[in-house]
Amino acid sequence: MSFVLKAAVGEPAQRASNPAVVDTVAAVIADVRANGDEAVRKYSEKFDGWSPESFRLSEDRVADIVKSVPETVLDDLRFAQRQIRDFAQAQRDSIQDLEVETLPGVFLGHRNVPIDAAAAYVPGGRYPLTASAHMTVLTAKVAGVDRVAATTPPNAGEPPQISVAAMHLAGADEIFVLGGVQAVAALALGTETIDPVSILTGPGNAYVAEAKRQLFGEVGIDLFAGPTETLIVADHLADPFTIAVDLLSQAEHGPDSPCVLITTSESVGRAVIDHIEALLPGLVTNAIAGPAWRDHGQIHVVDTLDEAYRLADVFASEHVQILTEDPRQALTSMRNYGALFLGEGTCVPYGDKLIGTNHVLPTLGAARYTGGLWVGKFLKTLTYQEVRDLGSSAKLGEVCGRLSRLEKFEGHARSGDLRAAKFGNAPLPWGDLPTRVTSER
Prior knowledge:
By secondary structure, the chain is an alpha/beta fold. It is built from 16 helices and 14 strands. A hairpin with a 2-residue loop joins strand 2 (about 100-105) and strand 3. The relative contact order is 0.13.
């Protein structure tokens, strides 16, 4: 019989933002919209104590910062970016332009055209998410985006060296040291010194996420962000210690991060609880991971793996790790997840940092209707049509006229009527075809 071994006791995250956050973000965006650079500088001074002569780093300054980073760190960044670039390139290569002839001389097609300019927000502060530079900047460049503007908050009054190096190595065309709502608004709207972009990407705090939500429509965004989520499906053969370690690896993202285990074994579930209680006191990030596990940790015991997969689909978690005898079964048994991590050799932090897939993934149940960030997000699939055979145009015109009048669109109907008359000798009851006049040279 299925039952809950550990339930969440905290309130789940909501899609609606805190009203105070909404109001603060709206005020900052309105100020940046009206006052441009002046407002950006004001909020940067207020929130970050940061007001350099220029928020954009010069090429010489970027080069100096990169030189200051230890070569071993640069090598690790290059290794991670090589994995991400290779997978993104494989994805891009799989996306093909299309043209088909649907009727004689009627050609329909689509082209995949890169967005012209993208912004990549790389979070800073206590936990700078350097990997976000790989996931946003690099993926956009592989897609063919001409201009990628990357931005990150200052760290203790200085540009964060590793983040700047990561953005540079990923191929950022412009690098700004600017954080918060003021950065997102400046890049979305444009100022006297910052050109606007067409899409905002990258994670951030509640204020950054709300800014992206409010600006969506004027610009595109990657995803509506919520707390990091992880879910593990495990059978009776799974190692409880590994499960415990892997759940805590994601719990440290934030005190509101859900971490869920669905298992077919009660003994595995109870052992996981014991291991987590033993591991938490020695975890440096216990102040964050502890509340996440206490308030948002769950363990569900189910009778079969089929039931486990069905329940996992209900959660539609951002990260889903499969620790079962046959992990690839999840590929056909599940459909609602941000990313799957199959088998004990694959942990979620690999996806977070370096394995090659993108770590910008859907949360708050959005995996029911979308996947994560990938090269396709930076492409516009644009359709076109051409009718070369005028007989086909006449046929289309006849049907277009009839269908348009069903919907009371007389102007549409007449465009179709005209082709039917001009190219097929159909009557034109509402007018006469003018005689074509040819000029002589």
